[in-house]
């Protein structure tokens, strides 16, 4: 029996799964990420504490498999865009700057003169001020003594690989969020490095997803509890990993990932399709398979959580989404008349909610939130469908994919069947598939999904018609 470990580095939690080559899940666990919220909208976390949390997750997973079994391969994927600087001894110079950090929004003049259209064409993503290119520019101007003291510039996932294998590496998918890669060439982009004063030698090595890196270091074995024979395999960005784990591998399908951000992920055969439509482009299964084009509703999951948390009582917090589901399903027709601008900042949404709860029941407000999010997603899907980016079906993973009511609402509003598979663990399952590809257990991702991905359930649209905002 061959056991594979897949890890999904979520924004709020690290999730993992151990699964065998036939799809039997032996263990699935998660650990919460601890953030430091400082002044000036800073959001950071300790690189070493994060690694310790990672090790505890691995230990949790291993405690649920037979003593005589060993994990053959491990792969890591996740939500990235977090920036870390290391000193000459490869120790963290700073705490990791999260993509949730708002300080670079007032980014310094060092980025002036950049041609943002060219950034999109080159790196694959339209410029976003909350990702490492902006972090690095901000550090270069605001904290030059720390910035210039750095020996290495990387994202925290590369630090994890270093702690596991003593190698500084990053896959092409994850590197897209670094904004320093020429995506089509698969190489670091010299003009951006020159702007930041960074040498290629100070960056991780670029490699394809599913690349076999080698065995764990002895220190990593001691810290994680894994066998010295465990192989480490490169993963990918979180949504491409979830697409692998949910079997969304071909053009004509859509993955709707409902996490801290809600993301629509379309496999596309032509990279230019995503560029022309202003979408986030990922290498995905190229060059032998499709690229991917994505749209994002950043922080939407956080907004939902803030609104729901405000409406429930303290003694209901642990069951808040079960209560949300139950009461939303018992809402009155008044809920259909609610108009909530769900993409507004959380502070504005809470001001609106405090006024609205004087006039509507909690169940009506719950249903209003559900409808507002669903119609916003519908608007995005319709927009890209008009541009020629189409999908016959939607696969929902993460967050609310465990809600039968919400998935039915999405099916009804979009008038498309909803596939449900691997829910919270789609990203971890996708990582396990890449681990299997890396060690030659599977010939490719499609075979990996067919072997261990499982069988989806389908929610068909019913005859209920919803008002469109």
Summarize the structure.
By secondary structure, the protein is α+β, with helices and mostly antiparallel strands. Helix content is 36%, strand content 22%.
List the helices and strands and how they pair.
Blueprint: E1 3-9, E2 13-20, E3 25-32, E4 36-37, E5 43-45, H1 47-62, E6 71-78, E7 83-86, E8 96-97, H2 116-123, H3 132-142, H4 144-147, E9 152-155, H5 156-165, E10 169-171, H6 172-175, E11 181-182, E12 187-188, H7 190-196, E13 205-207, E14 212-215, H8 218-224, E15 231-237, H9 238-246, E16 253-258, E17 262-268, H10 271-276, E18 280-282, E19 291-297, H11 300-311, H12 320-328, H13 346-356, H14 362-386, E20 393-397, H15 404-414, E21 418-420, H16 426-438, H17 445-452, E22 457-459
Parallel strand pairs: 1-6, 6-15, 10-13, 16-20, 20-21
Antiparallel strand pairs: 1-2, 2-3, 4-5, 5-8, 7-9, 11-12, 14-15, 16-17, 17-19, 18-19, 21-22
Give average pLDDT, whole number. 92
Poorly predicted runs: 464-469
Molecular shape: globular
Class inferred from helices and paired strands: alpha+beta
Rg over CA atoms: 22 Å
Number of contiguous helices: 17
Beta-strand percent range: 15-25%
Distance between the termini: 53 Å
Strand sequence of the main sheet, in spatial order? 18-19-17-16-20-21-22
Biggest pleated sheet: 7 strands, mixed
Would you report the number of β strands?
Answer: 22
């Amino acid at each position: 029996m061959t056991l594979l470990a897949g890890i999904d580095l979520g924004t709020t939690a690290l999730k993992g799964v151990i699964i065998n080559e036939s799809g039997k899940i032996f263990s699935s666990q998660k650990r919460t990420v601890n953030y430091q919220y400082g002044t000036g909208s800073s959001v950071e976390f300790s690189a070493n504490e994060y690694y310790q949390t990672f090790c505890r997750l691995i230990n949790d997973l291993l405690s649920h498999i037979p003593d005589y079994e060993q994990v053959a391969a491990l792969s890591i994927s996740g939500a990235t865009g977090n920036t870390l600087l290391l000193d000459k001894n490869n120790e963290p110079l700073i705490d990791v700057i999260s993509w949730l950090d708002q300080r670079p929004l007032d980014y310094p003049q060092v980025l002036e003169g950049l041609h943002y259209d060219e950034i999109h064409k080159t790196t694959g993503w339209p410029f976003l001020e909350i990702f490492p290119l902006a972090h690095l520019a901000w550090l270069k101007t605001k904290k030059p003594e720390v910035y210039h003291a750095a020996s290495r510039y990387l994202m925290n996932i590369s630090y994890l690989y270093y702690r596991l294998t003593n190698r500084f590496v990053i896959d092409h998918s994850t590197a897209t969020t670094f904004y320093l890669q020429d995506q089509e060439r698969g190489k670091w982009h010299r003009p951006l490095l020159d702007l930041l004063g960074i040498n290629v030698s100070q960056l991780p090595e670029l490699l394809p997803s599913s690349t076999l890196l080698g065995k764990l270091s002895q220190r990593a074995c001691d810290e994680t509890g894994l066998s010295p024979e465990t192989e480490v395999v490169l993963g990918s960005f979180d949504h491409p990993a979830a697409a692998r784990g949910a079997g969304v591998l071909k053009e004509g399908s859509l993955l709707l990932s409902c996490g801290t951000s809600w993301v629509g992920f379309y496999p596309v055969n032509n990279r230019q399709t995503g560029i022309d439509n202003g979408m986030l482009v990922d290498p995905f299964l190229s060059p032998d398979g499709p690229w991917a084009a994505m749209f994002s509703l950043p922080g939407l999951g956080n907004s939902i959580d803030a609104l729901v948390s405000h409406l429930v009582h303290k003694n209901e917090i642990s069951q808040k989404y079960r209560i949300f589901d139950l009461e939303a399903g018992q809402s009155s027709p008044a809920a259909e008349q609610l108009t909530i601008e769900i993409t507004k900042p959380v502070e504005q949404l809470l001001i609106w909610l405090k006024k609205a709860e004087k006039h509507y029941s909690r169940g009506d407000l719950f249903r209003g939130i559900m409808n507002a999010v669903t119609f916003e997603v519908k608007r995005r899907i319709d927009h890209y469908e008009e541009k020629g980016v189409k999908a016959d079906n939607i696969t929902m993973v993460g967050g609310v994919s465990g809600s039968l009511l919400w998935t039915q609402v999405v099916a009804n509003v979009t008038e498309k069947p909803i596939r449900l598979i691997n829910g919270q663990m789609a990203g971890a399952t996708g990582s396990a598939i890449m681990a299997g590809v890396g060690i030659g257990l599977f010939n490719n991702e499609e075979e990996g999904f067919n072997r261990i991905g499982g069988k989806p359930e389908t929610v068909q649209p019913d005859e209920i018609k919803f008002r469109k905002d």
